[in-house]
Structure formats: C-alpha cells, structure tokens
Amino acid sequence: MTWRPDLSVKISKLMLKNPIMPASGTFGTEMSPFIDFNRLGAIVPKSITLNERSGNKGPRICEVEGGMINSIGIQSKGIDYYTEHIIPDFAKYDVPLIASISGDTIDEFAILAERLTGIDRVAGLELNISCPNLRNNGIAFGMDEKTTNELIRTVRQVTDKPLIAKLSPNVTHIQDTALAAEKGGADALTVANTFLAMAIDTETRKPKIGNLMGGFSGPAVKPLIIRLIFQVHQVTSLPIIGSGGAMTGQDVIEMILAGASAVQVGTANFMKPAAMLDIIDEIADYMMRHHIDKIADLIGKIDLE
Amino acid sequence: MTWRPDLSVKISKLMLKNPIMPASGTFGTEMSPFIDFNRLGAIVPKSITLNERSGNKGPRICEVEGGMINSIGIQSKGIDYYTEHIIPDFAKYDVPLIASISGDTIDEFAILAERLTGIDRVAGLELNISCPNLRNNGIAFGMDEKTTNELIRTVRQVTDKPLIAKLSPNVTHIQDTALAAEKGGADALTVANTFLAMAIDTETRKPKIGNLMGGFSGPAVKPLIIRLIFQVHQVTSLPIIGSGGAMTGQDVIEMILAGASAVQVGTANFMKPAAMLDIIDEIADYMMRHHIDKIADLIGKIDLE
Amino acid sequence: MKNLHSEILFNRPVNDRYWKMAVDVTALEESVRPGQFFHIQCSDDWRNLLRRPFSVYKFDRRTRILEFLYLIKGSGTQALMKKRPGEMLDMIGPLGKPFSLPAGDASILLAARGVGVATLHALAQAVPAEGRRAIAIVSAQKRDDLLAVDDLRQSGAQVYAVTDEDGTSTMDQVGKLAEMLIEDYGISAVYTCGSKRLAKLMQNLATIHNLYAEIAMEAHMACGLGDCYACACPIRKEKGIEAVRICSEGPVFPLRQAVLS
Amino acid sequence: MKNLHSEILFNRPVNDRYWKMAVDVTALEESVRPGQFFHIQCSDDWRNLLRRPFSVYKFDRRTRILEFLYLIKGSGTQALMKKRPGEMLDMIGPLGKPFSLPAGDASILLAARGVGVATLHALAQAVPAEGRRAIAIVSAQKRDDLLAVDDLRQSGAQVYAVTDEDGTSTMDQVGKLAEMLIEDYGISAVYTCGSKRLAKLMQNLATIHNLYAEIAMEAHMACGLGDCYACACPIRKEKGIEAVRICSEGPVFPLRQAVLS
Ligand SMILES: Cc1cc2nc3c(=O)[nH]c(=O)nc-3n(C[C@H](O)[C@H](O)[C@H](O)COP(=O)(O)OP(=O)(O)OC[C@H]3O[C@@H](n4cnc5c(N)ncnc54)[C@H](O)[C@@H]3O)c2cc1C
Ligand SMILES: Cc1cc2nc3c(=O)[nH]c(=O)nc-3n(C[C@H](O)[C@H](O)[C@H](O)COP(=O)(O)OP(=O)(O)OC[C@H]3O[C@@H](n4cnc5c(N)ncnc54)[C@H](O)[C@@H]3O)c2cc1C
Ligand SMILES: Cc1cc2nc3c(=O)[nH]c(=O)nc-3n(C[C@H](O)[C@H](O)[C@H](O)COP(=O)(O)O)c2cc1C
Ligand SMILES: Cc1cc2nc3c(=O)[nH]c(=O)nc-3n(C[C@H](O)[C@H](O)[C@H](O)COP(=O)(O)O)c2cc1C
Ligand code: FES
Ligand code: FES
C-alpha cells in the first residue's frame, strides 16, 4: 500500500538518501524557512576560498532567455569563518555535507583540502576547478587536462575524503578532462559548471555583467549538459553528479538516464525556494508510475536499442 | 523626413544591402510566398555535398526549452543538381548568393569550391567545417586548429571567391580556430554553427534524436554566441557573421555590438516565415530611435568604459 | 498557403484527452482539401518554440470555418487547450498534398486508429459531394476514445468501431472485417492513418484486392514548408528507398510506398 | 518571510508608464514594514525566469491589503501588467531590513526620484501613527511622472514636487529647498531613494546638519534571501569598503555608508 520507491544513491563512499543536492553558490542557510534540509540527498554550500574575497563588481547577474548569467566572483569570508560558522550551521542536519573549494593556485586547493580533511562533518570535497584562475591568463584549471590532472593528484595526496571534480563544460572534449581527473584520483565528477557567456544591453551598449563575461545556467543549458553527462559516462565508471538546467523531476530523470548518479539543483532554487523538495516528489511519482523500485537502476539506462 | 538609416555592410568583397541573411539549412525557395527575397542582405541555401546523401534517420529534430536540436545529416542531391537547379532558382533575386559547402574530406571541399568558382552567380563560399566528418572519428574539422588551417589553405588555392569559414562553437578556445582559419586564407568567419546537444524522452527512455546527438540552435544559445563573437572579434579583424539565436532586431544589434558585421537567422524562420523582414525593420527602428546613420558604425561598439 | 491569424470560434473538450477547435479562415482564398494540414503556433512561450502540424478535420467551404480535432499530448497541445474563443491563432496553411480518389463512384474504405481519424474524417466529409460513400473502421484503445464516430456518421459514412477494451481490434479481427467490407461494398480505394500495424494490414489487403490505397504519415516538423528536411522519412520509390519530406511531398503517400517495418 | 500565492485585488495603470497592484496577504502573519520588499514571479514564461523585487508601497494592517507601485520597464513588468484581478501572484516576502526612525517626534524628510517614491511612500504612510510628520520632495523628469503625490498628501505628508520639465529639479534648487525644509520643519531624519545624485546631496546635507539618514538601494537579485551574493554592492563599513547583500543586509542602509561615486 504505502510502498515508496528507493531513491538512495551512492557517490563514492557517500550514501545519499536521494539524488538531489543544491548546486554550490545557489544555496545557503537563508533557505531554511522554505525547505527542510533533512530531506536533501546532500548539502553543498557556496565555494570557499583560502582567504577572504570581496567578489566581482556588479551587476553580478543578468537574466537571459531560459536562464541567467552570473559572475559572483566567489565572494567568500575565507576558510576560518567557514570552519567556525558555515560548517556548524549545517552540522545540525542529518545530511552529508560536501564542501566546495576553490583557489587561484593548486597549492590553495591543497591547503583547503588539508584543513577540511580534519573536520568530521565534512563528508566530501567538491573541487571547483572550473572557474577562471589568476595563474593561467583567465583560463580555468578545468579547461586543460594536464592542469586538471596535476591539481587532483596534488589534492589527493593530502586527503582521504571523497574527491569530486567539478568539470568545466567549456572544452572541446570533456572526455579528456574527465579521464585526467579520474587518473588524478577523483572519486566522482560533477558535470558541469556554468557555460561562459555574455550579454549586452542594446540601449546602453554596456555589458550586462560588470565583469563582462559570466557563467550561463538554467533550463537553456540542459541539452548541453545531457550530452556532456552522456559523453563522460561513456568513458569512465566514476559516479557523475549532473549540474545544469535541472528544474523538474523529469529533468533529473533525463540526467540519470544519460549517466548521472545524482543531480545538483541551482537556478531552480531562485525561482522556487522549495524546488528541490518538489523535484524529489516528482522523481518518486515518476518511479511509481513506471514501476521502478530503485532509482539507482536507472543510471545510464538510456535505451539505445 | 523620409530619411532611412544605412543598413549596408561589407563582408570581404561582398556588399550587402543589410546585415540579414538566412542560416544555411533553414531556408529555401518554399519560403518565397512569405518573404520577398530581394529584401535580404544575402541568400545562403542549404549546405551542398559533392555526392547525393540521404541524411540521417529520424526523428531529425526535437524541441527543447528555448530552442531545438537537429541532426538532418545534410540530405543533399549532390553538386550537379545544385548547379542545375538550386543556383538558377535563386539567380532571379538581386541578392548575393553564398553557397554553403560541406564534405567528408578536405578534397571534397576543394572539388566543390573549384566547381562553384566557375559560376558567376555564386558570390561567396561558406565552408561548413563544423559538422562531424568521417575521417576523424566523428570530430568536426572545425574542432581542430590544424585541420581547420589545412582545409582552408587547400580550398584557398582553388578559388578566388570570398571564403567564409563557419566555425564550430564546440571548442575550448574559439580564438585558436578563428586564427587558424584566418591564416589559412579565410576572408570572413561565421560564428558559429550549432552546439552539440542531446535530449532523452523520459517516457520511452529513447534519445529524442534518431542520430543520438545533434546541433542545438535557437534563442537559448544566444548568450554563448555573443561571447564567441566577442572573443573572435578581439583576435581578428576579419568580418564576422553571427549565427545562433537571433530572433529579433535587438538580438542582431547585440551581435553587431559584440563584433558581428552581419547576422544569420535560422530557427526564427521556423517560428515566423517572415521573421527576417521583421528583423530588418526592427533594426531600422532601433537605428532611428538611437540616431545611428550607418549600421556599420556599430560593429564591435560594445561600451567597455 | 498563407500565414494566417485566424479568430478562434470555439475550443472545447470532446473527452478527457481530445479537444476540438474551430477557426474562421475567411482570409484564405484557396481551397482546403482533405489530407492537408496547418502548422500552428500553440503559444508564444519559448518552451514551445516550434509550430505543431494539425490535419484538417472539417472544413466548410461556404462558411469558411475550419475545424481541428486534437489529442492533448505534451506542452504544445496543453497550451492550445488554453486558447479562448475570440483569440487569434497563428497558423500556416493549407500545407501538404491532399488525398486523391481513383476515378469512378465506388465506395472507399477508411481505416483509422486513435487521432488518425482526424485526418480521415475530412475525407469522409468530402466524398458524398463526389457521389461516393465512405465506410470507416475506427479503432481505439478504449471506447471513450472512439473519436469522431458521430461526426463520421453525420457525414454519411458507415462506421465500424473496434476497441482493445472490447477485444474487437486485433489485426486478425480487423483484417476479416475489412475483407468483408471490401467485398460487400465493392470498395475501390483504401485510406489509412494513425497506426503502423493497421497500415501494414491495409497494404496487404490493397495488394491482394488490387485497390488504390493511400496513407497519411506523421513526422516531427520544423518549417512545415519543405525547406529544412527535418521531416524526411524513408519512402519506397522506383529507384529504391528515398528520404522524402512528409510536409511538402506528403503527408499523403501511396500506401504501397510506405516503409512500415 | 513566506512564499505566498496571493490573490490580486486590482492591477491598473496610474499613467502610461506606471501601474499599481493590490494583493491580499491575509495568509501572512508577520508585519510588513516600510523599506521591505517582495520578490515576485512576474510570469511563468522562461523568458522571465528570475523573480523581480518590488517595494511595499502601501500596507493596510487591518485589511491586510498590500499595494505595489511599479514602472513598466522590461519583459517582467510587461508580464506583470497583464495579470488580472482574481489571479494569484507568486511572491516571497516580506524581505529585507526596513527603515528605522530616530527617537523623538520630529518631522522627517523624504527625497525621492522616479519610482523611488514607491519605497518612501510606505514610510510616509507609517509615520503619522508614530505622531510624526513626513515632508516629501518628489522629483521626476516630467510632470506626468510625478508619482504618488496625491497618495502622499492623503497619508498626511507635505509634498514638494519638482520636475526637469519645469526646470525645478536641479541639484542646486533641490539643495536649497531641502535646506529650507530642514530648518523650517526641524527635520531630524532624511530618507532617500531612486537617484544617486539626490542621495549624494542628501548625504552632504545630513552630514552638515547632523541628521539621521537612510537610503534604500537597488541591485539585480537572484535569490532575494541572502544566499547567492548576486546583489552584493559596495558599502562603507568601519573596516573599509565591503560588498554587502542588498537583499538581506539592506535594502535600507545608513546613508553615510552609501558609496555614491
Ligand atoms: C501532418 C500531421 C498532421 C497531424 N494532425 C493531427 C491532428 O489532426 N490531431 C492531432 O491531435 N495530432 C495531429 N498530429 C500530431 C500532432 O502534430 C502532435 O500530436 C503534436 O505536435 C504534439 O505536440 P505537443 O507539444 O502536445 O507534444 P510533445 O510530445 O510535447 O511535442 C514535442 C515536439 O514533438 C513534436 N511531435 C510530437 N508528436 C508528434 C507527432 N505525432 N507528429 C509530429 N510532431 C510531433 C511536436 O510538434 C513538438 O515539436 C499531426 C501530425 C502531422 C505530422
Ligand atoms: C529592493 C528593490 C525594490 C524595488 N522596488 C520597486 C518598486 O517598488 N517599483 C518599481 O517599479 N521598481 C522597483 N524596483 C526595481 C524593479 O525590481 C525593476 O524595475 C524590475 O526588476 C524590472 O524588471 P523588468 O523585467 O521589467 O525589466 P528588465 O530590465 O527587462 O529586467 C531584466 C532583469 O534585470 C533586473 N532589473 C532591472 N532593473 C532592475 C532594478 N532597478 N533593480 C533590480 N533589478 C533590476 C530584473 O529583475 C531582471 O532580472 C526595486 C528594486 C529593488 C532592488
Ligand atoms: C549565482 C550562482 C553562483 C554560483 N556559484 C558557484 C560557486 O561558488 N561554485 C561553483 O562550483 N559553482 C557555482 N555556480 C554554478 C552552480 O553550482 C551550477 O553548477 C550551475 O548553476 C548549473 O546548474 P543550474 O542550471 O541548476 O543552475 C553558481 C551558479 C549561480 C547561478
Ligand atoms: C534544421 C537545421 C538545419 C541546419 N542545416 C545546416 C546546414 O546544412 N549547414 C550549416 O552550415 N548549418 C546548418 N544549420 C545551422 C544553422 O545554419 C545555424 O548556424 C544555427 O541554426 C544557429 O542559428 P539559429 O539559432 O538562428 O538557428 C542548420 C540548423 C537547423 C536548425
Ligand atoms: S518540416 Fe521542413 S522540410 Fe518538412
Ligand atoms: S539576491 Fe541572493 S544574496 Fe541577494
């Protein structure tokens, strides 16, 4: 009668009660009046940097058809504040906490990873290697296989926490960076960060983003992300976390069929603060309608005849 | 009183009465009941191949949020039919005809270019180097700088017609392929072809495109195309033809501000067969409202302070 | 062929899955023929960017009122359902090649399944004026889905309704029924739409009984005009199998040309 | 703070660029204070994915009717304009830090330009209950845009309207007018919204006259809650200039902290 489908999935050593987690940068404690955090598969707070950063100049976001462009610039209070305030804030929830870390150099990533490894409440690390960095002329680490490999290898040496590499979609062959991350020791891959994009206000002729370019997210990018997830799933058996354009339970199912084991929800949170809970319910409905017992059985199960 | 702004632009040796032309594959003679072809800046028929090709299996298109995915597979009757029927069909219009050519090998491109060079009515050639080819494991010529350079260099040797290279957007650094095309002898660049994408029907679990993946076009891709046009415009002084997501006159102005000299309209034709004429009118309205005499003065004029 | 903005006269449910809509097409000079379709903008939301093709269900030459019968399938038809009388419908048409009738005044057989009946209804409606009679086999999953049966009868057609629910719609049963009708009514032509299995059956019967036969085909469309080759499907031609455009070379094809496997 | 689906009571033009909308917020238990805003889903079209922030224009504690005054600017407000009474408005709020008043019962000065008056009107409406009086300088390009002047007067405010059209709105003139009002009415606090130049002027006057002063700021927002840092703008703090979130740390800030260059 009250049979409920099994939504649990495994990402490396992490057991998630369902595949839904927030995308880094789109989620925080201020959402607690709208959503019971205990119902989520995991919690991913905003990316943290070693030192305090004030972020980019405004406008930091603009709306485009079917999505938005952001260039927040990882405004952050630094790792001390993070370990003293952010982690304890989330510690009360019975949900694995995945810390997203970001840095301008490989060393910064390693220092952050080392510091967070000492903290029990941190269940895993997501490496945001897909945002522009200072060292390499504005090019993200994740746009180059060698750098990706070196970065993950370095971080791998200082931590035994599950390492999730968040890949950049702005590449010719994502398979190459995916394999570079795998060889470097990543335990899972997030596919992917935002797409580099730009918009111009035709009335003022000024860029709509203060920082000129930014990352494109929202429903418009989903067909690109489905393709990227599928391509990555074909070359590696690492678990994949889909990220980009998930607005409904159906979008999540599509990502899972393409090869994702879990899915991050970002832009949808801005439209509807309770979006993640609705999505979890829609997944369960879909499973019941299709008589699917375990969501894990659907991973990569696109029917190619 | 009846002052009309000057919409003319130059693409290499081609003088266009306005910046609007159809995107290859989305336009044909069947649109003539809806649109006066003489009002267009140029005409670009569907890409032609050397031999007859039957195209890909269906479904060849699917709708996605804010756009569509297509995988037509360049169904074509071959070059003989093209020179005997398609070119004469368009010859009656007083508009430069740009022939889009496509091939599986560099030689095929060269043979096609040579044959079309003998035809006066062909004003220029657009090289569709951005569709997957057989030689290189499904990778488009335009995804690799060396191949791009070699292809254009080879074609350049057999023709003196203006050569327009249609770049692939599915690359890490479009600047590299743009420069490779320029060095190969291209006279202009189309930025860009469609984005590799995929969609899955969650009810049947089957891919929505018979050929699994296809090219993503429509309003959703505009923020990516604006960024690509801007990046290409920064590294080369070759004229750029924007292609991707132009639905309104405002979209065209945005592309021109980013660096485009002309703009191709594709998906919009399917929504509104007279879309290109409406767009031309909207451009003129914008210019009058902003007291802009010549559209050419706006090219690349984004205000970066 | 025109891009029309036609006033919606009514738009109402037929049952819980099907709707009927009527529009005023006085702005259209040309005739609208059975088998043709209109390419319709269901909403201006960019979730439904592309137009959707819908067959002529009914056309009144005198009042120039055009009707569609449509199945609520996805986001486009869900949006269509929300249109109110008095609103304008953006549509391109009439498009495509219509059905044709062989010479003579013999009766014709229509074999439709599901919403395929929408296309064939227009034909049933047209034949009495040619002094002929239409006999229709209408197949559906459930009795509730037996669409247009009353409309068909009103147009003078003789209707045989079969359903999965009643266990009367197996290919075996429909084959026997059709054989009987072909003989009893001296059928000279068969028309089919809406099911591959049904089409295969009719293809066989048409060969055996040497009947003129046509099929109305479906494919996802972009332009609807013949320019983009989005809708191309395999069809058996003299030279072998070719990919032809359903929108402009069809949607109606000789049934023997249909590739049904 | 709640995600409400509130019934629209009316939605009508004030002039050709501005509209007023009222919604029923009986579902909301908490109080709604001047300076706060609601984050509103203008349509479910994916051309307007993000919510838009609108200030409380008027709030009736008894009837729990909430009003907004809004400028038709782009696609979001164009969609908002099309909503009909009886439809539901999806909004999150009340959000943000409200205005605060210094102790005492001295009059306060409001200096607004354009739609900035929407935010300050809520304050004008609230002060009489505190036994104070609001004096308002309302600046606009054209006389037709002099918004809310009647509403302000009805709320008991003394209104000075200036326009570019009349040549009465230069910073020089407004400065002199404000100086006069500050002295004549014994103003203890200034509130401003809608123009950087006006804010700068008030910043100077507040320093000179040692007045309590606040500004309501604007920024593009995504979450509206304080989670995403989309809306962060530079603000002068003790330690120097910091990027603070307009949505949750503002939109109301001490005027001296505003970075106005
Ligand atoms: C020539 C022709 C005549 C038709 N006549 C009728 C009719 O009279 N009544 C009726 O109910 N249906 C008819 N159809 C099918 C109708 O076009 C689809 O049911 C409709 O497009 C579904 O749109 P949707 O957004 O509701 O569904 P979705 O499944 O959400 O559509 C997604 C996309 O797929 C396309 N698509 C989905 N199914 C079909 C289909 N069967 N054929 C073509 N494109 C499809 C849609 O156009 C859209 O682009 C006809 C199809 C063709 C080709
Ligand atoms: C705290 C606050 C209170 C506000 N109160 C009011 C009010 O009471 N009445 C009123 O008319 N306007 C108010 N605004 C401005 C209002 O939010 C914008 O005019 C509105 O978002 C424009 O949306 P649009 O789609 O019509 O315009 P577009 O220019 O098409 O909007 C495009 C995008 O830019 C954003 N945007 C554009 N202008 C602004 C702006 N000034 N502030 C923030 N985001 C903007 C939009 O939200 C949208 O995401 C307020 C803004 C803030 C920050
Ligand atoms: C406002 C905003 C801020 C973001 N900040 C971060 C960040 O700090 N670190 C990160 O790895 N990704 C960041 N992202 C990317 C998201 O985590 C996510 O990968 C992306 O938005 C795609 O998912 P969506 O389409 O569901 O939004 C941000 C995205 C947005 C919209
Ligand atoms: C149905 C369809 C067919 C296309 N065929 C071709 C083609 O044959 N050759 C080519 O170079 N580009 C082709 N394209 C790409 C378009 O020319 C254009 O670059 C792309 O659609 C982006 O523009 P849009 O967003 O305005 O549609 C095709 C696009 C579509 C939608
Ligand atoms: S839909 Fe374009 S050719 Fe048929
Ligand atoms: S809008 Fe998200 S923090 Fe202010």
UniProtKB/TrEMBL annotation, chains A, B:
GO biological process: 'de novo' pyrimidine nucleobase biosynthetic process; 'de novo' UMP biosynthetic process
Binding site for substrate: 46, 70-74, 128, 193-194
Presence of keyword Flavoprotein: yes
Keyword annotations: Cytoplasm, Flavoprotein, FMN, Oxidoreductase, Pyrimidine biosynthesis
GO MF terms, alphabetically ordered: dihydroorotate dehydrogenase (fumarate) activity; dihydroorotate dehydrogenase (NAD+) activity
This protein's record includes keyword Disulfide bond: no
PROSITE patterns assigned: DHODEHASE_1
Cofactor(s) it depends on: FMN
EC annotation from Swiss-Prot or TrEMBL: 1.3.-.-
Annotated compartments: Cytoplasm
Active site as annotated: 131
Function statement: Catalyzes the conversion of dihydroorotate to orotate with NAD(+) as electron acceptor.
NCBIfam families: PRK07259.1, pyrD_sub1_fam
HAMAP family: DHO_dh_type1
Assembly notes: Homodimer. Heterotetramer of 2 PyrK and 2 PyrD type B subunits.
Family: Belongs to the dihydroorotate dehydrogenase family. Type 1 subfamily.
Listed name of the protein: Dihydroorotate dehydrogenase
Species annotation: Sporolactobacillus putidus
